[in-house]
Amino acid sequence: MKFTVIIPARYASKRLPGKALLDICGKPMLQHVYERAIESGASAVYIATDDERIKTAAEEFGAQVILTKDTHRSGTDRLAEAVEHLSLNDDEIIVNLQGDEPLMPASLIEQVAKDLNEHEDASMATLCTPINTVDDVANPNVVKVVFNKAGYALYFSRAPIAWEREHFRVSSFRPSGHHMHYRHIGLYAYRAGFLDRFVNWPICDMEEMESLEQLRVLWNGERIHISEAAAIPPPGVDTQDELERVRRLVSQ
User: I need a surface site. Which of 114, 183, 200, 207 has the fewest CB within 10 A?
Assistant: First the structure.
């Protein structure tokens, strides 16, 4: 199976400006992300950015870079422009690896690509892990997913889903232990032709309410296949505290 990894990377970040180029044990964060993509066995890896500073740094560590427009609303829009630039066939598999995931296991990058390859009726594939803590069930920053018996997504939400009606009513979202909740991992595989359709659909109401763009896919009747991740991914980097944590993990 062949697949391509594209890493959307931007310089601007409200909480951690320039984070793609921040140092982690002697390398910019983006280089760690790129190395995880190379380790996955991808047939090609590209960095898509609108910033000359990122382009220069990425080329210095040997990455292929696609310079995109600076008007994109999301990394997925940037990804779609990169795919168009590469003139890929509609059925080719693209993995979207976020530029702030320096510790993403290479095995998961390969897993999500294989999962899409094995489910021809899906336009996208993504991963999940079981939620085992009370705080994560209630935390709106932890995106939850529910799926059917065949593994196709029914809904993604920042709310505690599925809702244990009688139990949550008296327990402040403490899981009963009798049912499983799943956390969505933001690692996606797409078919190249689907990306062009996706970015031309208008934002839907539930996507806007939840601030989750994958809901646009379900709204438009396309299918997303979900698999449980074969490994638990370490945290990404959004804040200074998370950056320091990743630095400690890499140094070990």
Answer: 200
On whether residue 47 sits in a domain, the answer given is yes
- Domain presence at residue 20: yes
Question: Do the domain assignments include residue 139?
Answer: no
Compute the radius of gyration of the chain from its Cα atoms: 18
pLDDT in tens, 37-73: 999 999 999 999 999 999 999 999 999 999 998 877 7
Q: CA distances (Å), 85 to each of 40, 68, 75, 88, in order?
A: 23, 9, 15, 8
pLDDT, tens digit, for every residue of 176-217? 556 789 999 999 999 999 999 999 999 999 999 999 999 999
Residues near 98 by Cβ (< 8 Å), separated by ≥ 6?
Answer: 7, 8, 33, 75, 104, 186, 187, 236
Is 163 inside any structural domain? no
Total domains, the chain: 1
CATH number at residue 122: 3.90.550.10
| 14 neighbors 54 (Cβ within 8 angstroms) | no
- Specify which residues 27 forms β-bridges with: 24
Tell me the pairing of strands 144-147 and 64-67: unpaired
The whole-angstrom distance between residue 110's C-alpha and the CA centroid of its chain comes to 13
> In this structure, is the dihedral angle defined by the CA atoms of residues 124, 125, 129 and 130, taken in order, positive or negative?
positive
φ/ψ of residue 82, rounded to 5: -65, -40
The boundaries of the domain holding residue 104 are 3-126+184-251
Query: What tokens were used for 156?
Result: 């993604």
Model confidence pTM above 0.90:
yes
